[in-house]
Design goal:
The chain is α/β, with parallel strands linked by helices and about 160 residues long. About 45% of the residues lie in helices and about 15% in strands. It starts with a strand and ends with a helix.
């Protein structure tokens, strides 16, 4: 089986946070691939990688980046696959990652990036959102997402 979700991050230091997306998707039975590529430092490698995604069966892309956080936008500009941006708190972050959040969410009309919360919660939500997108054409995955949500509700109610 090939990966249906590709996860890319701007730096290897982002792997700890973005692992929440990998774990979430693995728990739902969705295969992923991960890469470290920079919108600014490796633009040619990023372009080649994005061009390879759809032919290889990838259906959703999750991008995690901090600081300038242009990675999700750079990916979205090169594909019509759904792109989910996870803003990350970089060492030089402003207001706990607000800079990355604004850089990720403020896309020009016609180049959308679905944007989730800053950090680990956002990475986990990106995994769930990617699964929900895939579940529109995969009833079994949809059932697994429903069970995940029911489990979260049960934990709250058990209090």
């Amino acid at each position: 089986m090939s990966a249906r979700v590709a996860i890319v991050m701007g730096s290897s230091s982002d792997e700890t946070t973005m692992h929440a997306a990998v774990e979430t998707l693995a728990g739902l039975g969705v295969e992923t691939e991960t890469r470290v590529l920079s919108a600014h430092r490796t633009p040619d490698a990023l372009r080649e990688w994005v061009a390879s995604l759809e032919p290889r069966g990838v259906r959703v892309v999750i991008c995690g980046a901090g600081g300038a956080a242009h990675l999700a936008g750079a990916v979205a500009a090169q594909t019509t696959l759904p792109v989910i941006g996870v803003p990350l708190q970089a060492p030089n972050a402003i207001a706990g990652g607000l800079d990355a959040l604004l850089s990720t969410v403020q896309m020009p009309r016609g180049v959308p990036v679905a944007t989730v919360a800053v950090g680990e919660a956002g990475a986990a939500n990106a995994g769930i959102l990617a699964a929900q997108i895939l579940a529109t054409s995969d009833a079994e995955l949809g059932q697994r997402v429903r069970k995940l949500r029911e489990g979260m509700a049960a934990k709250v109610l058990a209090g």
